[in-house]
Write a structure and sequence with these properties.
The structure is a homotetramer of 132-residue chains. Chain A has 132 residues and is mainly alpha-helical. Chain A is built from five helices and three strands. Helix content of chain A is 55%, strand content 8%. In chain A, a hairpin with a 3-residue loop joins strand 2 and strand 3. The longest helix of chain A is centred in the last third of the chain and has 20 residues. The radius of gyration of chain A is 17 Å and the shape is globular. Chain A binds a DNA duplex (15 and 15 nucleotides) through helix 3.
DNA sequence: GTGGTCTAGACCACT
DNA sequence: GTGGTCTAGACCACC
């Protein structure tokens, strides 16, 4: 799996990493039980510090997306993804609200906005799984 | 208009301010041409630093949501809201993508996600405009 | 509040810090809303690195014991302590089980063990709040 | 006796092994003088490294729970379990204290906490000894 | 001033 | 080899 980081972004590097791995899972490119590179190898591959990778992995572990298997390394949670919990739902709605509000100001109709979301949904799910 | 700030939030205060004003515009509670409180009075009203309000107003001005006149003070852009520009579109899609991806991982179907967005849309637009 | 660290302990320093702060809250020496020293000052006071303090604070924040107020610094959660949740309950029972088992092997009766726990409970709660 | 290991746990595997054997003794499923599997066979049974089992056995021996004979192999200490020594007492209290403190913060009364400990005590002692 | 992030390098426990 | 911890020093955003 290719990791694309924007070092100029306002988003912390570890957050970008977390997002990309979640997108990888959502798209099916990363499957439950599949191993992830070690902290050190991923860090050297993408040219960042191992602590930054570690922070991303730790957050993914706390949220239940991955397991950190002692000495076997890191794997995508083989059993189940974290559920649609109430705290998560609130977090999601809180993130969505300002985005929707700005879209409304800028003239997007409800239909247009839903189409936009639908397209993003399909882009993620239909990502060609053969391409890595 | 009531401003609700969460001092524990990870979002900077000025960003929360920006978001709330944009939501006010989206909901219709704030209308084009309508005056906003001065930096000084808003800051003292909600008990935050002048600089923080100033930063929020500056960003809103840069994005085209408000005008800042030397004498007339601050008003909602009376002519037109900023449009659905290409850079904004990219920004929006970049923000939406990780949210959608995580929702997919957590088991949301496309229909459920669209309903969620639709509900948020309606909540913003249908906010009772009588209540301030 | 005095922090006592054992640099030779098997427990990570940041865990010892977390424990001591939780004990401080349990004993009433640290009250809801009360400020905690800044990362830097606490680190220099007890002679450890600021990142270690930061890690402890971050964990306490995630567990809901403290709030990290932007720029105001760190305060004990003024509203409510984290509840007796199911995951916590499981964690607690998992920690308690091997301790109880070993006590049984070493000849402790149920009554003796309960007295031990009771004494610890009282020691924490009845800590003289005048002494700091 | 069935050994249940959690490879995702933060506890080292050898510690989990030690705990489970102590629980086995506490519950009566493992009786004084009873033989334990050899390092080699236990390791292959539960699919872990020889060294890991060895480390667990070594710790149990040091604490006085088992004897390791050159010929007879490993047996539960036939004479007497280790006593309620002063160093052990301190260790136990040190482990108990943060658990009790957190329970207090999370709203457990002394009675509730004692009931919790009592229940764990009974669960260990009353484990059906017929089931292995 | 505050906390947050990133880097760098070291040591350790575990397997 | 793995991840976990600690230290050190730097820069940044926020207020």
């Amino acid at each position: 799996m290719i990791i694309q980081l924007d070092m100029q972004s306002e988003l912390p590097i570890y957050t970008q990493l977390v997002n990309q791995i979640i997108e990888g899972i959502a798209s099916g490119r990363l499957k439950p039980g599949e191993p992830l590179p070690s902290v050190r190898s991923l860090a050297s591959d993408i040219g960042i510090n191992l602590h930054t990778v570690n922070k991303a992995y730790t957050q993914l572990k706390q949220d239940g997306f991955i397991h950190i298997h002692r000495q076997k390394g890191v794997v995508i949670n083989p059993d189940q993804m974290p559920g649609f919990t109430e705290p998560y739902k609130n977090k999601m709605r809180g993130e969505l609200k300002p985005i929707v509000a700005e879209a409304i100001c800028r003239g997007k109709s409800q239909e247009q906005l839903l189409q936009e979301v639908e397209q993003i949904y399909r882009e993620i799910v239909h990502t060609d799984k053969e391409i890595e």
